[in-house]
Amino acid sequence: MHRFFIPSEDFHTDQVHIRGKTARQISRVLRLKAGAQCVLLDNLGGEYLVRLETVDSDMCDAAIMERRKAEEPGARLLMMLCLTQREKFEGMLQKCTEVGAAEFLPVISQRSLVQDEADARNKYERWNDILREAAEQSGRGRIPVLYPTVRLKNAVEDFGREYPLRLIPWEGEKQTGLKSVLKDPIQKKVAVLIGPEGGFAEDEVQQAMRSGFQPVTLGRRILRMETAAVVSAALILHELE
Questions:
Q1: Which residues sit opposite 77 in a β-bridge?
Q2: Considering its fold, how many domains does the chain have in total?
Q3: Sign of dihedral through CA atoms 88, 93, 95, 96?
Q4: Beta strands in the chain (DSSP E)
Q5: DSSP bridge pairs for 198
Q6: 163: domain CATH number?
Q7: Are 119 and 161 contained in the same domain?
Q8: pLDDT by residue (tens digit) across 13-59?
Q9: Chain-wide mean pLDDT for the chain?
Q10: What is the pLDDT of residues 227-237, one digit of tens each?
Q11: Same domain, 55 and 85
């Protein structure tokens, strides 16, 4: 069944108004007709089974048939991803959203392929669309939060503090694996810093460690950054859930 996030203010007592891109998708792309059922989400934790009553490219009206609570992972995972080529970065956003990541922070490190913060800002509308579509497709109850791009120093000093567990997968760490640092069941907020293609510079790892990040190994293999991101997200949420 098709799922769509729409603004919470468009939900009323027993009716919902569907506007903009979503109305055009329903009418022109999916060609749904009056009487068809779909699921609407308010991005606040609510999920609504509705029946379309009128279908138009400008606005669709739907009647609420059932209200229920949208399911989300119990753990809150922040993925701090170093910027890279467009296809790779967008792939990480999509796949980590499908796995269950709650937040994303684009990071510029010394070896990041993208160094221009303004260039990253120009992609935010597209990135948010990717997050929304991935959340709809994978049955998420909320669209992940996308934070503004920051330099690595600011990322580890400013964003890490509210997360009891902060991890940095690093090829220089040979002993400490994810499973060993996820034993404590109260660790339900985790931040993970994923490095660029060329890896972190040594001083960046030391800086992250001084800010409370724990280096971990993902195993004997050297993983591409996009692989490391998805593997980290999946393993962490699996252990915590």
A1: 190
A2: 2
A3: positive
A4: 3-5, 15-19, 37-41, 46-54, 59-69, 76-82, 103-108, 145-146, 150-151, 165-169, 189-194, 214-216
A5: none
A6: 3.40.1280.10
A7: yes
A8: 899 999 999 999 999 999 999 999 999 999 998 999 999 999 999 99
A9: 92
A10: 999 999 999 99
A11: no
